[in-house]
Specification:
Layout (H helix, E strand, L loop, with lengths): L4 H13 L2 H7 L4 H15 L4 E4 L2 E4 L1 H29 L2 E8 L8 H11 L2 E8 L2 H10 L4 E4 L5 H4 L2 E9 L1 E6 L19 E4 L6 H13 L5 E5 L3 H9 L5 E4 L10 E4 L8 E8 L5 H13 L1
Parallel strand pairs: 3-4, 3-5, 8-9
Antiparallel strand pairs: 1-2, 5-12, 6-12, 7-10, 7-11
Helix pairs in contact: 1-2, 1-3, 1-4
Length: 297
Amino acid sequence: MNIELRQLRYFATVAEELHFGRAARRLHMTQPPLSQTIMALEELLGAPLFERNRRGVTLTAAGAALLPEAQRLLQQAAGLPELVQRAATGASGRLALAFVSSADYSVLPPSLRAYRAEYPQVEITLKEATSDLQLDDLLAGRVDAGLLIPPLPDRARQELEYLPVLREPLVLAAPAGLPLLAAASVDLRTLAGMPLIIFPRHISPGLYDAILSVFRAAGVTPEVGQEAIQMQTIVSLVSAGMGIALVPQSVSNLRRPGVEYLPLVQSTPLVETGLAWRRDNASPVLRGFLELMKKRI
């Protein structure tokens, strides 16, 4: 059974006018082909849609049941061009975005606010993941883009594009109340005996190497006490007095009782957060997100 939108439009017009002549004029056609179309629709559906008598035209029970459904389908069909245009321009659709935990305290919230304001009809799905897991998801096409900490490994450079979005220094996260924290900045050499809480290197080699380079420059060999893969966990371990940590400056926005954030006397490398995406991803939604991110840098 193939019902055409034209047939439904003719039926709905007659049902609204309850007069074949007026419906024909409204449709800019003559009455005979309109009547023939309605009769063909009735034959196709196997039931009369109108009762025709000298007093006029009324809907049958079948016609009354069909009318709201026909109007709904016609309304949906009328909205298809706008739907297609929104999808083609990136104004609607779905964006799957992954992010490292540190981005949650820096670039992610303002970027999402700006994107939501410009593209309110795009559905955004978020996934917090370490950089190594993001690379797997990006290469497999499970996410559209990822906020991660470089470098990109060789296996990913051929397939991914990368855009730096933030560079920030490292700061000290230490248990509150230590006498040495009274100064405006802290010398790492005074912390030589305290355990270090850090990301495992295979999870985030860039961040791991940046942290250890600060200790090497200060002439200190740290004792790694704990490893954790989330910034929230690292800060919670510091709060519990398990050791100290060097974290990107934006993580100081994560407040935990029992934790103090302080700058270091030693200079630190700038830790970079960037956006990665598949080079062959032609999604208009992704294109809109990339354009917004480039404007914000």
